[in-house]
Amino acid sequence: xxxxxxxxxxxxxxxxxxxxxxxxxxxxxxxxxxxxxxxxxxxxxxxxxxxxxxxxxxxxxxxxxxxxxxxxxxxxxxxxxxxxxxxxxxxxxxxxxxxxxxxxxxxxxxxxxxxxxxxxxxxxxxxxxxxxxxxxxxxxxxxxxxxxxxxxxxxxxxxxxxxxxxxxxxxxxxxxxxxxxxxxxxxxxxxxxxxxxxxxxxxxxxxxxxxxxxxxxxxxxxxxxxxxxxxxxxxxx
Length: 237
What we know:
With 237 residues, this protein is of the alpha/beta class. It has two domains: 2-10 and 180-236, no CATH class; 17-177, Rossmann fold. It has seven helices and six strands; from the N terminus they run H-E-H-E-E-E-H-E-H-E-H-H-H. Strand 4, helix 3 and strand 5 form a beta-alpha-beta unit. The relative contact order is 0.16.
């Protein structure tokens, strides 16, 4: 059955785009990071008023990446974009020590939102190429990341300008998303959903189990056989 879990996991994530938000205070380097991921180069940016959105493929996973403006007047609108988000990339300007407290408050408020309770968190301690940049350990302490419970998180020191650390962080994110997709597939196949729930959400998607099964049917006879196994599991459970 392990092969069935892997197959269903691949079905869930091979074609759809996984929704990612890039958040952080203004001037943290969010847009520079977005286009580092998109084209692998530094681009000239201006402060984001609203959002930028791009499709990004990394390690065979397709991401729908939203870069939201970080100005004080824009942050209250972040919550409009939280639904169906698989992971948040929170970008910190590691040289902006005076605003670490503000960044910590914004991060804590964001993580308290119900729509992000299952989202993985990747913190990029950005601008490591600049003098005076604090390391990942100091940034982690300032953000009180060690106090987080029931959430997959990681912090990586990086520079969106020269690219250092970016792949390390994204590798963690891909691995985390893939692990969560395997766990989801296992819950679907073996009927191990939490008691009292009637839907299993795919991280970063509005697709539930029934929609997933419809996708399986369209894929052909092999998929239909797996659908039958899922049906048995749900009935026997």
